Amino acid sequence: MNYRHAFHAGNFADVLKHAVLARILTHLLDKPGGFRVVDTHAGIGLYDLEGDEAGRTGEWQNGIGRVLDASPTPALADFLAPYLETVRRENPDGGLRHYPGSPAIVTSMLRKHDQLIANELHPVDADLLEEAMAGRRRAKVMRLDAYTAVKSLLPPPERRGLLLVDPPFEQPGEFDRMREAMRAAHQRFATGTQQIWYPIKDVKAVARFHDAVAGDGIERILRIEQWTRRPGLEGPLAGAGMLVVNPPWTLAEATRAVMPELTALLATGPGAGWRVDWLVPEASR
Ligand SMILES: C[S@@+](CC[C@H](N)C(=O)[O-])C[C@H]1O[C@@H](n2cnc3c(N)ncnc32)[C@H](O)[C@@H]1O
């Protein structure tokens, strides 16, 4: 386990992943009943953009840095609002020093009767996560293998909630494990929302993953992808995507409406683009 998210925190891929995460949470918060978020690959929770790792790559400058410097249209500002609110909450003195990872985003939005299970296997990162979550009473840190966590933590007792799967993709077979996690989660918690993140490097491997998932009998799978230049196997990450099972009703339309502007804002080279479509729609009755 060599991957350290601190090198990448706040990059273009985090911006879209976390903006979508905050919108899913906003939707779950619309109803009074409590819910649970299971974050299988939680990372360290909160990132210091002036720290050694983030400073060495500077990836955040082409991500959250650009977003905060931009003058977005009202539609994009509205789309990003719940996410940017969590970023501001971690930087109460203004500026941008602390970037919230998924556990910080989730805990800053939850109510008293909602719960986060933040799971992280790397022992050092799990210790840092414990520190970051100290005092955030709605969060419980666990140190399971992510795919064991899916099987043992679902369904949530609240019967409402979100499974976030955001692996580092440093081991071969991650797409197969994610597919298995989606199937296991669907079996245990068919009505739950799943947000499943992946990098777009090997476009053929991504297409094989999509084909396999589309044949698994899970309905309502929204695909959201963005690439800031032409994707490829070489060089730093150019593109990323996510599958959202049981997305909020408005997510497809809202995301589609802002993707041209958001992609232009985050583009780093020729061939930047995006797609938002249904990998599997709802079955017609
Ligand atoms: C991409 S980062 C997570 C970022 C985080 N979800 C966020 O949005 O802020 C992936 C994390 O998964 C952890 N990890 C790797 N393999 C794991 C496994 N099998 N089970 C649980 N965590 C794992 C890594 O240590 C790393 O911190």
UniProtKB/TrEMBL annotation:
The active site is at D166 (proton acceptor). Pfam families: RsmJ (PF04378). It comes from the Bacteria. GO terms for biological process: rRNA base methylation. Specifically methylates the adenine in position 2030 of 23S rRNA. HAMAP family: 23SrRNA_methyltr_J (MF_00934). This is Ribosomal RNA large subunit methyltransferase J. It comes from Hartmannibacter diazotrophicus.
